[in-house]
Here is the input.
Amino acid sequence: MFRLLRLIFVLGGLGAFIWFGMTVRLGEQTLFEHIQAIWKTQESQDLMRGTKEKMGNLVDRATDKVVKGVAKNAPGQVNSHGENSGEETPPREDLPSKDRKALRGLIGHGLEKE
Here is the structure.
């Protein structure tokens, strides 16, 4: 019973916030219009670009550490792109380049290209 009341309260609060953000004017604009105007400024775009660059580097370093940890338990040496450099090669599936690009995008390599 308490969960249901809490859910109703949270949904009511969320609905009130959305209504407020869309209808109540704070000066010449609503809350959501202010947020949109801030988002479009050059400074916020620079912040996003810098964040993507830093996160891309962080994802690359984390990926390398994970691959090195996995490589300790796998035969042969594996680099961060999943390629073996040792003589003994574990079995692997051949993926089309389209699928490889999609997988790299999932682990963060796609952040650098934007």
The CA atoms of residues 56 and 71 lie 22 Å apart. The beta strands are 25-26, 29-30.
